[in-house]
Amino acid sequence: MKKLIVMTLLLLAGTVQSNAADQKTEAFDRFLTDFNYEIRADMKANSKQLIKLIDEKKAVLVDIRFTEEVKVWQMNFGLHIPLNELPKRYKELPKDKIIVTACPHKDRSSLAMAYLRTKGYNARYLTDGLIGLAESLRGDDAKEFREDTGCCQ
Questions:
Q1: Residue 113 class from Cβ within 10 Å (0-12 exposed, 13-18 middle, 19+ buried)?
Q2: How many CA atoms lie within 13 A of 48 on its CB side?
Q3: Tell me, which fold does domain 37-149 have in CATH?
Q4: How far apart are CA 112 and CA 38, in angstroms?
């Protein structure tokens, strides 16, 4: 009888794990099935758009680089949630803002954007990456951004 109970519990545990995996797959399947030109356009933001959205308080930048990368080169605004921590920490993000994910180029940020969209967030990725953003925030532009947003004071 004990063996039967143990076997039943093991089968149930496997079914629960399988159902959770199926739900994750289904969310991404829906994202891909619904994908069209409008969504493709809506999932992107360049640095100028991001700066405007932040200035209007409509968006939050999420730096998804590894912690070591951020220690070497840090942005003084936005949130830092490494890509590999996103599944555990995505609920820290506001649902009422556009979430713009960023990394130096755009490979990891596009993954983060797709993941967040499957979780119901209005997410975009930074098309010119943090390197492009840094270029957009040099000299007078940095001064103006700081004054307009109240950032980094």
A1: buried
A2: 0
A3: Oxidized Rhodanese; domain 1 (3.40.250)
A4: 19
